[in-house]
Amino acid sequence: MPLTQPAMAPIDAATRFGPRGGLLLLLAAALQWFDAAPLRADVTVRVQHPANAHIDLLAWRAAIARHDAVRVVPPYACLEKPTTWGTPAASQMKLAIQLQLLAAEDGVAIDSVYAARTATDCSAEQPGTAGPLKGERVLAVYLPEFAGFGRMRTQAETNPACVASATLVVCSGNPNEAGRLGDLLWTDRP
Length: 190
Prior knowledge:
Number of strands: 5
Number of domains: 2
Order of helices and strands: HHHHEHEEHEE
Mean pLDDT: 78
Number of helices: 6
Radius of gyration: 21 Å
Distance between the termini: 59 Å
Strand order of the largest sheet: 2-1-3-5-4
Oligomer: single chain
Strand content: 5-15%
C-alpha cells in the first residue's frame, strides 16, 4: 500500500509493521516536535520582533487591535512577485506578510493571506468602493498596485479617515482613528 497522504501515514505504518509501526511513527513525530522546539521559538521571536521592520510594529499592532478587520488592497496573491528583496515590490510583499502576522496575533480578520492560490482572479479582488464606510471598524491598506491607488491618495488629502504617502494609503472607518493613522505610514520609504 503506497503512502499517498501524510494523514495516512499512521494507517500505512500500522498495516506494514503492525502495532509497532504506528507506535514507532508516533515516537518519531514526538521526537521531531521536541527537536524542532528551538527552531519554532527562534521563528516566533523573529516574526514578532523582526530586525529590519520597515513599519512601526507597535503602532500597527495597536491600530489592528482597535479594528474588527484588516483589508489589504490588492491582496497578497495579486501583488507583483519581486525578483530581488531590495525592490518596492518586495517592500509591499513584506508589508502584506507583516500585516497578516500582526492580525493573526490579535485574532483580527484579514482578507489577504500568504497561500499558494494558483488561480486568483485579481481583477475581481479590486474593491468597488472607496475605502471603509464610516463606522465600519475596518482598517484598509492600499498599495500602489491597486488600480485606484491614485484616487485613494487624492481622497486622503481631504478625508481625515485616510492618510497617504507615495507608497501607501491607510484608511479607517473608525472615527476615533483619524489622529492616529499617520503613525502607520512607511518609516523607511518616502
